[in-house]
Every structure is written in C-alpha cells, then in structure tokens.
C-alpha cells in the first residue's frame, strides 16, 4: 500500500472513530437520562407504597389530648428511681410491680416490664 493510500485510510478511520465516539456520547447521555427517570419512578413507587407510622411523640400528644396526665407518669417514675439514677447516672432500676427503668446519662430512656423486656 502506498503512503497516499495509507494516509487516506487513516483519515477514513479517524472520521469513523469520531462518528462512533459521538454516537457513544449520545448513547451514554440517553442511558443516564433513562437511569434518572427510572430512579425517579422507583422513588415514587416507594413513596406510594410506604406504610404510614405513628411516632411516639404523636402517641404522647394524643394521650394528653384525651385527658391522660402524662406528667403524673413522669413524676411517678422519677419518684421511684430518680434518687438512685441521679446517684449512679446510668443503669437499670427496678420499681413498681415488676417494672425496670433504664437510665443513660441521667435520662430515663425506657421502662421495661411485662412482655416488653
């Protein structure tokens, strides 16, 4: 093959490569767009099928609205375990009829007892 023929073949291949690279960029862009749309649809499906839950805060506010004196429960727990909890700062403190107050950093974080242990 002559030098002129090789240079012609080189230009043809360079042109073909440029076209293919342009096509590749276009395909990648379309793939990314499709992936984003799919991700969006999946998120919409997730939101549409998500189960509604009730927070503990909402339950407490509901109880208060229904006339339950939540503050009296807090006072009862503190009266039973407050002194020990303050002295030790953390731990499990039994009180009442088979109940246990769990304290971390001077905060009663939960009460265990019955089937909740």
- Enumerate the strands of the largest sheet in spatial order, edge to edge or round the barrel: 1-2-3
Provide a count of the helices. 3
Intertermini distance: 88 Å
Indicate how many domains the architecture comprises: 2
Structural class, by secondary structure, is alpha+beta
Q: Kindly state the percentage of residues in helix.
A: 55-70%
* Main β-sheet description: 3 strands, antiparallel
Which SSEs are present, and which pair or pack?
Elements lengths: L2 H47 L6 H10 L4 H19 L2 E5 L3 E6 L2 E7 L4
Antiparallel strand pairs: 1-2, 2-3
Can you offer a commentary on this structure?
Helix content is 65%, strand content 15%. It is of the alpha+beta class. Strand 1 and strand 2 (99-104) form a beta hairpin. The chain is rod-shaped, with a radius of gyration of 35 Å. The protein starts with a helix and ends with a strand.
Summarize the structure.
The chain is of the alpha+beta class.
Descriptive key words:
117 residues; 3 helices; alpha+beta; 15% strand; 3 strands; 3-stranded antiparallel sheet
């Amino acid at each position: 093959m002559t030098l002129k023929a090789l240079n012609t073949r080189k230009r043809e291949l360079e042109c073909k490569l440029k076209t293919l690279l342009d096509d590749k960029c276009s395909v990648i862009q379309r793939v990314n767009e499709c992936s984003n749309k799919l991700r969006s649809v999946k998120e919409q499906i997730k939101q549409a099928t998500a189960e509604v839950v009730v927070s503990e805060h909402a339950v407490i506010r509901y109880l208060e609205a229904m006339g339950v004196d939540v503050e009296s429960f807090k006072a009862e727990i503190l009266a039973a375990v407050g002194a020990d909890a303050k002295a030790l700062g953390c731990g499990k403190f039994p009180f009442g009829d088979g109940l246990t107050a769990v304290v971390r950093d001077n905060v009663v974080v939960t009460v265990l007892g019955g089937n909740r242990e």
